[in-house]
Fold this protein.
Amino acid sequence: MIGYGNQGRSQSLNLRDSGLQVTVGCREDEYAARAREDGFEVLAPVEAAAAGEVILILIPDEVQPGVFEASVAPGLVQGDALVFASGYNIAFDLVHPPSFVDILMVAPRMIGQAVRSCFLEGEGYPCFVACEQDASGHAWETALAVALAIGATRGGAVEATFLEEALIDLFAEQFLWAGIVRLFRTYYDVLTAAGCSPETVATDMYLSGEMVEIARAMRETGFFKQMELHSQTSQYGQLSRGDRVIGPQVRQVALEILDEIRSGKFAEEWTREQAEGKPHLARLKQGAFAHPLNRVEERLKRTAEGESP
Ligand code: NDP
């Protein structure tokens, strides 16, 4: 296991509980200390990769190319399998494994913490599995064995490709979530400018937790069918105004964003941004954290804790 963060820790614990022997490859810092506390043997990444037969690369996507070249590639031998949890670096040609290893993906559709809690509670969560290179002749068996041992087959291991996973993941981030966050900001800005108090708007928008319940109902009842849980006024409002909110020009933007991802243009831009020390990301985050919502949250939190607002 290379990396002991969100996914690395949960997957290591699940693999061990499924009867597999796991060695963790980590730099000497708090992650390594945590892995030792959890009872794992911890080696330097280069030693762990050389010792492992099935090598899971669970470090952030952006550091994988450098760590792979320096610490994983030197120890690879015929018959080894590399397992990624996202398609990004293989899909956009940023990591180049040799031809004699299996290149696999087991990508949980679940945050790291819940990969562990679902496993412990016996619940399922799905994953995408892919095989980019079958050098051993039994690569698919290895991928499915990893999926089974981390508890992901309980929710369904769905066959995919590295590119598919990368497109779905990045497009969700860059179109779906980018759009949802923008809509929420506009909702807040328009209502507070119209005289509604920041506290009532923020509470209604997400602090109440109603949104979580709607997401749960979408999953359990159906994406559209959950609408029956809302009043008819709400149903009519949602259905009659949606096309005006998201007009045809949004589809054009969606296609442009998807094209930037598919062509590798976004991956190039992000690689450049990282090489320059991420100045654009820092500016964008500064802008987001300057939004008044941050102060409203803090005020409401202090009030909830009993301090005067
Ligand atoms: P984390 O950010 O939690 O990974 C942290 C780990 O990576 C630590 O062990 C850290 O150790 C190590 N690490 C970071 N930088 C370096 C470096 N330069 N050299 C060596 N080790 C380093 O990652 P995630 O678990 O979030 O993501 C891992 C993979 O899982 C990614 O491919 C991601 O796309 C995928 N994934 C993540 C999901 C999630 O919920 N987070 C969901 C599904 C897939 P150190 O202190 O030494 O830096």
